[in-house]
Amino acid sequence: xxxxxxxxxxxxxxxxxxxxxxxxxxxxxxxxxxxxxxxxxxxxxxxxxxxxxxxxxxxxxxxxxxxxxxxxxxxxxxxxxxxxxxxxxxxxxxxxxxxxxxxxxxxxxxxxxxxx
Amino acid sequence: xxxxxxxxxxxxxxxxxxxxxxxxxxxxxxxxxxxxxxxxxxxxxxxxxxxxxxxxxxxxxxxxxxxxxxxxxxxxxxxxxxxxxxxxxxxxxxxxxxxxxxxxxxxxxxxxxxxx
Amino acid sequence: xxxxxxxxxxxxxxxxxxxxxxxxxxxxxxxxxxxxxxxxxxxxxxxxxxxxxxxxxxxxxxxxxxxxxxxxxxxxxxxxxxxxxxxxxxxxxxxxxxxxxxxxxxxxxxxxxxxx
Amino acid sequence: xxxxxxxxxxxxxxxxxxxxxxxxxxxxxxxxxxxxxxxxxxxxxxxxxxxxxxxxxxxxxxxxxxxxxxxxxxxxxxxxxxxxxxxxxxxxxxxxxxxxxxxxxxxxxxxxxxxx
Lengths: 116, 116, 116, 116
Fold this sequence. Notes:
The structure is a homotetramer. The first copy, chain A, is an all-alpha fold. The first copy, chain A, has one domain (3-104): Helix Hairpins, CATH 1.10.287.1080. The first copy, chain A, is built from 6 helices and no strands. The first copy, chain A, has helices at residues 4-18, 27-45, 50-53, 58-82, 86-100, 103-106. The mean pLDDT of chain A is 94. At the A-D interface, α2 of A face α2 of D. Chains A, B, C, D: Residues 26-100 form the NTP pyrophosphohydrolase MazG-like domain.
């Protein structure tokens, strides 16, 4: 069964091929493009309070959704070019974080809080 | 049917809840955490030529996979907190890019090359 | 008269030359290195409230100062390699922002707030 | 004697004060704004080869100069709000790097190449 990310990676592969853009899609270049898009995403939240950031208005929400999309597209494309299964890698890392951050010890403390 | 990203988002939700970390997971904070991880990913490629970046050695490959995992975890968590379906948003954006970048006109030109 | 940034740029030039690292210091690579360091700087603030970020403890302050140093070093080196006078460029941009953001109209509003 | 960066920091202070923007200029927010601008700078180089990045055309050069200016403005503003002397911090870090990276041992090797 093809997963949703494999399907997306396949579309991105075709997208690059028909435009002869594979030459530009080295991991180095794609990592830069990803950083550029994440910069745009961060900029959406820079002047908001943490509380405001949780309830953006309709226009900001549309822009944020589009930035999340761009980040996803470059991340999926970068992983595909490198042959990395993103979900498998993420699940492995989360297993590791689950062992590393004992719920009792780290409860309510953001010190070195890992992804999640 | 639950997709692989929904499953991952569910695990991240539980991970945060049992540690009482939901208070730290505002979109503003998660966007910053995402930017920090993307910075680490970019650093892996900074001194490599584009060609070298396509064939990292085994140690670099393991580090890159772990950084891609961290980026994925924060991206999925951020989208979940905001209620955005990442794959749907990405597919929509790719549809738009498909219309916007005519294959004939943009063939082999990186000028304004979009994600993919 | 040599300014403090010209002196710093000169030291960085010598630093790279004696290690034969000029070959790695292309603008592309230096921009990536800058992004990596900014990622580390952002990570220092990611779980802090805006208020907490204004009064970091002694250990966090030392780390933040070191990250600001790394960002400055790469920024000065990148500008030097490109032949850009950072202070002149910044003054020009600030002149432009001064004209663009009328104090009366933008008073107290972060909407599109520019640098400073 | 007032240095060029102190003068710039002073202008930025006044710029924020007359617009009542000091409330937005917490270190957390300014670090995010810095990350956003560095993202735009990185995007200028993402599809260029390292060689091309060393010789951008006139239009790209103007954009790059403007992005370097934005990065400088936020960096100087952030350091000012935190009470950090950027040049002193950078000189200290460069002293440390000078000791840490023995020219003989690291000659021509980008492995762990530090800023410079």
